[in-house]
Amino acid sequence: MINDVHLRVIGPLDAVAAGTNPTGEEILDTAVSADTIDLQVARDIGEGANLYAVFTVTTAVTRAAGACTVTFEVITSASADLSAPTVIASSDAIPKATLVAGYQHVLRVPPSVGGTGQRYLGLQMTFSAAADTGEWLGDFVHDIQDGKKFYSSGFAVS
Fold it and tell me: What is the pTM assigned to this prediction?
């Protein structure tokens, strides 16, 4: 997986935009990406090829009390601030216990993204209840890898 700064819509410094606050305010019920991809700019983001959205947890999601789940979503909108979004791909509800630092979730972007009539592409996270902390990266990529294959030491490759 090769990341491109122009295809990162949730960055490590977007904690406030993603709903958290350094002063400890709770994460909002729904958080949209701070940046978007303008689908009307003359560039190739991989039309006809598979495109994926990769959500990476960089700071674990916590909640002082009670349960919390998050649903990751790929959205389009007619406006750059992603207001009134249309959800085009969605994950199941993922429990907070799973959302530890380093956790990744991948969604395939439907190939018809250009035909939605919407100009902007972004990401959204929907929480079942307010959480206390958590930070993410959100990238659009052409290929994915799990990068988590570990092999025991002491074996020979021939």
Answer: 0.77
